[in-house]
Amino acid sequence: MKTIRLTMGQALLKFLDNQYLELDGIENKFVKGVFSIFGHGNVVGFGEALERYNGDIVVYQGKNEQGMAHAAIGYAKQKNRREIIACTSSIGPGALNMVTAAATATVNRIPLLLLPGDSFACRQPDPVLQQLENASSMSITANDAFKPVSRYWDRITRPEQLMTAMINAMRVLTDPADTGAVTICLPQDVEGEAYDYPEKFFLKRIHHISRRVPSNGEIERAGEKIASKKKPIIICGGGVVYSDAAQELTCFAERFNIPFGETQAGKGAVAWNHDLNLGGIGVTGGLAANKIAEQADLIIALGTRLSDFTTASKWLFQNPEVEVLAVNVNSFDAYKMNATNVIADVKEVLPRLTAELERAGYRSAYSGEIPAAKAEWNKEVDRLFNIELGSGLSQTRALGEIAQIIGENAVVVGASGSLPGDLQRVWRPAKPKTYHMEYGFSCMGYEVCATLGVKMAEPEKEVYAMVGDGSYLMLHSELITSIQEGYKINILLFDNNGFGCIENLQNSQGIPTFCTQTKFRDSNTGRLTGQDVPISYAECAKGYGAKTYTVRTAGELVAALESVKRDTVSTLIDIKVLPKTMTGGYESWWRVGVPEVSDNPNVMEAHKKFMTEVRKTKKY
Question: With a threshold of 0.85, does the pTM exceed it?
Answer without folding.
Answer: yes
